[in-house]
Amino acid sequence: MTETLSRRFVLQSLVAGIAAAGPTLSFSNASRAMPDSKAAGAFIVHNDLPWALETRRSQFGFGPITPASRLFVRNNLPMPPGSVTDTGNEWAFEVSGCEQEGRLTLADLKRMEIQTVATVLQCSGNGRDFFPHDPSGSQWSVGAAGCVLWTGVAVADVFERFGGVKGDLDFLTVTGGETLPEGIDKSAVVVERSVPLEKGLKDCLLVWEMNGAPLSAIHGGPVRLVVPGYFGVNNVKWVRHLAATKMESGAKIQQSGYRMRPEGMAGGPEHPSMWRMPVKSWLNGPGADDAPVLAGTNTLYGVAFAGERGIQAVEISGDDGANWQRAELVGPDLGPNAWRTFQLTAEIPIGQHRFVCRAIDTAGEQQPEGAEHNHRGYGHNGWKDHALLVQAVAELPHQAHEESAPAFASMPVAAAAPAVTAVLSDQALAGKQLFNEALPGCGVCHSLADANALGVVGRNLNTLKPSLAQVQSAVTQGVGAMPAYGAQLSTGDIEALAAYVVESTQ
Predict the structure, then answer these.
(1) How many CB atoms lie within 10 A of CB 330?
(2) In this structure, are 78 and 118 located in the same domain?
């Protein structure tokens, strides 16, 4: 296939409205390089556009704070350029729903009273890989979480600066700063979340520092919302609008996305939103990521947390819950929204062993054995699936050491879940090249196993399994929020793209 204008224009027929019709794209055959701020070897790379980086179990360490270099990343859309933090003090956002409405910059925030809070940041899908029905999305195990220190200004203080909340309003609604194109239904793609206003006024923050350093762009800098005790999706990045509202946001990500719904059912406001995190714990070592340990006396260690509640106790079992031993809570207690580290000294004989743990929060709620089954694989906190497998040996192999991990350079994208490689026709191979080479790529919005694509904005192509006619029609004429591209793409390119999607999903 020749390099036609259609290739220089969009391949966004499968990018569900991320870009308006007709923008010029660039192309690349290579995956994006790991961000410089992230430690080599510390992550499973599920996706690179947008970034989905899972912290390896062995990389959490013993302490309560997760370094920024080892903190997971989950972005719903391509992030703004890293340069947004170069002039961070100039970053501005609108404030509404108060007696007066106005605008603040980061520089303005820094002149207000400052607070620091420790919270667990956890993706709603953390633990998704353990669900038996293979829900779509990044197949996280335990690594889509971390505990960090945030520094910023209380949302309540921001509202007070504008005269306080006006009238009888019920929600804090915050809009992210991703750049969205003209000409599409922005509600279908915008990252805008609502939480109860009572929660927003109680303890939510607008932050610009993480672990004592300026908040990086990949984690939402210059300004991000922090909702202590709630799942990560509510912690909106690159804040552009802060509002007190009567109703929840009408955006798709609020109305139907991130809802606890039964398998096979479309999400809607009638289903619980992913707000407060339930009690949860897991072991991080020794022996995570298949690293052998020396048989004998060892220290089992891990983390436990419960959204908005502290941890009362943690128990560990070496026989799948038949018997339990109380672990010791160690390290500082950083508050009810942080996680507690715990340990237990145990004699581990030669052989393979399976250890599980369960936490009890300060309200007496005990971590369950299993998870609440749901369509998207959200909120898994069952202790049985989070087991740590330990291989104890009489002598460690030469040069092996605890918690070793391969270099990042050797890790392919989606290393934790290799893609299913289809046998493709020549036409489909040309379509695969088109699918993968556009920047932004089609995988920004769509999941497609053959392409290592894990997008969640558009339809999951693995489960949709569209026909040739369906793909060609969607690309040519548009569908939903997606514009038509019949005028930009050649007939041959559309046919090749359709052939690839069909052959790789049937």
Answers:
(1) 14
(2) yes
pLDDT digits (tens, 9 = 90+) for 90-99: 999 999 999 9
Q: Is residue 487 located within the same domain as residue 423?
A: yes
Count of positions (residues) in the chain:
506
User: Given 393, 425, 441, which residue is the final one in a domain?
Assistant: 393
pLDDT higher than 80, residue 439: no
* Three-state secondary-structure class, residue 474: helix
Question: What are the φ/ψ torsions at residue 315 (nearest 5 degrees)?
Answer: -120, 150
134-144 pLDDT, tens digit per residue, is 999 999 999 99
The structure's pTM equals: 0.77
Quick check: 292 pLDDT over 80? yes
Q: d(Cα 468, Cα 221) in Å, to the nearest integer?
A: 42
Taking the C-alpha atoms of residue 360 and residue 276, their distance in angstroms, rounded to an integer, is 16
- Is the same domain home to 205 and 327? no
C-alpha 26/C-alpha 384 separation (Å) is: 46
And the tokens for 194? 């609502």
Q: How far apart are CA 433 and CA 425, in angstroms?
A: 12
Total tally of structural domains belonging to the chain:
3
- Mean pLDDT, residues 63-73: 97
Is the residue at 275 inside a domain?
A: no
Please list the residues that pair with 105 across neighbouring strands. Answer: 92
User: Are 88 and 113 in a shared domain?
Assistant: yes
Exposed/middle/buried for residue 421 (C-beta within 10 Å: 0-12, 13-18, 19+): exposed
Q: What are all long-range contacts of 48-52, with beta carbons under 8 Å and residues at least 24 apart? A: 48/413, 49/78, 49/439, 49/440, 49/441, 49/443, 49/444, 50/75, 50/76, 50/77, 50/78, 50/79, 50/444, 50/455, 51/75, 51/79, 51/218, 52/138, 52/454
